[in-house]
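Researcher: Re-running this chain for the archive, since the previous output was lost when a drive failed. Same request as before.
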Amino acid sequence: MLKTKTNQKGFAAVEAILIVVIIAIVAGTGYYVYHTNKKSSDTLDTSSKVAQSSPGKVTKKKTTANTNRDAILAAIKVYETSKGASANTTYTIGAIVGSNARGEVQPASGDPSDYIAHNSNGSWQIVYSGHLPPGKAIGTQYGLPTSWYASNR
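Model: Regenerated structure tokens:
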């Protein structure tokens, strides 16, 4: 028959190891969450700095927040804000082909307009904005796909 001790004091080695493992898991999870949230706030800070650069031009920085889409949207927002666009304006990207992007600006009230952005040396610039497609001169200057511009203007 197995004898049991009725007067045990303290923890066994296995119990102590389990407690250390549980504390390590909780601490590791806490560190991961903190580190991930800190990265998110850093990229938000970078995005707001990008939006404050010169109108119509955004320099691409080496952060995860500055993918081509983020940089294009930041460029069009800066460009349109400098022209008096309201905070309720919606910006979309229709297509990115090589170093060119095309999209639409939808103001809170009024007709939508198109824009063309061009990436030169890592910097996206708005090269055209309007209700009609750009003319052939802009199309050939920036190497736009022929369906993006009017060949007769």
